[in-house]
Amino acid sequence: MSLGLAVPTVLGAVSGCGSGSTAAPLPTGVLEPNAAVERVIDGDTIDVDIDGRTERIRLIGIDTPEIAHEAFDGRPANDTECYGEEAREFTQALLPERTAVRLERDVVGRDDYGRILAYVHRASDGIFVNFELVRQGYAQPLTFPPNVAHADLMVEAARDAERDDVGLWAGCPTAAG
User: Residue 103 in contact with residue 3, Cβ under 8 Å?
Assistant: First the structure.
């Protein structure tokens, strides 16, 4: 499995989902996987196996509430934020251990912590995991240019989740602010 460094291509057409809902990437069927999930760390961070090496992946374009775990720099664990556990559980449901995934990169390939920055698609059915987390209310958009390939899609999905009062929009008093 080779991850490659190319800017991603669009994996699915955009189509309306009916009655004013978010235009969502259509599943494209089976995708060629380039990694397999080893474990979910939190809602927007996973470990994967790429060619026999474990790599930490940060799902780009989104931000899920934090859970209590040791910080990257060794600081003590912070408190779990509202909807943090739910976001992790949803990501675990989408990406159980050994799930084959297709990682697609944008312009900047790694963050300051050495994590690969990627859009994650479940290989079996093409589900765009980053988008699904926002659409279901488990994440908010978080854009760091130049990684903006799906920024508009994430903002639209968050607006719909907030309007529909789902996920963290319904369960967290400070989600909107």
Answer: yes
Smallest Cα–Cα separation from 26: which of 136, 127, 152, 141? 127
Measured between alpha carbons, how far is residue 169 from residues 7, 90, 141, 172, 176 in Å? 32, 15, 13, 6, 7
Active-site residue identified among 38, 55, 58, 102: 58
Q: Say whether 66 is catalytic.
A: yes
- Is 98 a residue of the active site? no
Helix (H, G, I), strand (E, B) or coil at 148: coil
**27 contacts: CB under 8 Å, gap ≥ 6:** 12, 125, 126, 127
CA distance linking residue 77 with residue 20, whole number of Å? 41
Distance separating alpha carbons of residues 6 and 42, to the nearest angstrom: 26
At 78 the pLDDT is: 60
Catalytic residue, from 38, 55, 66, 104: name it. 66
Pairing of strands 116-122, 53-59: parallel
Tens-digit pLDDT profile for residues 6-39: 333 333 322 233 333 344 454 568 899 999 999 9
Q: Tell me if 161 sits within 8 A of 137, measured CB to CB.
A: yes
Q: pTM here? A: 0.79
